[in-house]
Amino acid sequence: MRLKIVQAGDPALRQAAQPLTAEEIVQEEVQRLICDMRETMRDAPGVGLAAPQVGLPLQLAVIEDQEEFLKAVPAQELAQKERRPVPFHVLINPKIVLAGDAKVEFFEGCLSLTGFSAIVPRTHTVRVEYLDERGEPRSVDASGWYARILQHEIDHLHGTLYIDHMHSRTFTSLDNWNRHWKGKAVAGA
User: Fold this and answer.
1) Which residues are catalytic?
2) CATH 3.90.45.10 correct for 11-184
3) 33, 27 in Cβ contact below 8 A?
4) DSSP H helical segments within the chain, as ranges?
5) For the chain, what are the domain ranges?
């Protein structure tokens, strides 16, 4: 079932989400929510979706950067962003336990700020510890675009949006981004 994605201004996006216990994770209601969030993310389309974005204050996010999304992106941009396909996975109660010092800046958007984008500095590398959809502990070391996705979705679980980190002078509609900035170096913005 496709869920409604709430937009900026909805209080659900500014609350700290509640952790889930291992017992709650395996319940049918949470498993159904995971499936619905996956469908909603794919339909949007997006590369990540956090439970607060569908109005639920739970520390749960789904991520997938499909190979088909990358086909429309020039090879030079994929290399610059270090963007590669990321298989579908579920993050529950995630924590960034290690973040590199190096920052990278790229335009970033959000399904809860439809039609807008801005340059957001993010840490280039992160290590994230989390529970998977079975309540099993996992960790991932990520860099490049995947690290950006992880940071973006984990921010949602703490009531933070990319606009809280953005360079405000770069905030733009997607129409203007396509017209003026698409394919150009971030430094020029």
Assistant:
1) 153
2) yes
3) no
4) 22-25, 28-43, 67-70, 75-81, 144-156, 174-176
5) 11-184
